[in-house]
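Many introductory courses stop at the sequence. We go one step further.
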Amino acid sequence: MACAGALALALSACGDSGVPPPGQEPLRASTPQVAEDEVVLRGQGLVAGPEAFYFSAGRNEIEAALLPILGEPTERSENPECGVGAMQFSEYAGGLIINFQRGNLVGWNSRDNGDASRVQGDVQIGSTRTEAQEAKGFAAIPASTLGDEFALGDTMGGFFEGDEVVMMYAGAQCFFR
């Protein structure tokens, strides 16, 4: 019985090795090049300067990595009624919101490409509708109850206002559909 407990403990320790799950390539801060004072938002997490984080990374680690780049969050809040369960949020100047559940990174959404943050890829906040529609993996979401929504592959999405991309997101969101 003691051996089974030790084996379970050893296996659970393996889950936090920093090795990406099968089928996911590693998030490397250097590919593409990320400056020390820059945040790049990716479909599977984010990169803050030299540190890359997948969804499931700890809130304390994320906020510590963002601190020298974006400063303290302008607001921390929680919504216990999200469709995916209670979520906590850290909002930064410029419209970047980082989403957490039970202390772990689960998503992000952004309304601005600030001096210090940008979305990975060719489609950015401020891109035209035509630029987004020509991007690899673009798909309109015509039945969205949230507005003029689109997907980019299976990891990112966004919204148009008129002819411009005004918001992008990845991971779990507290959107009420």
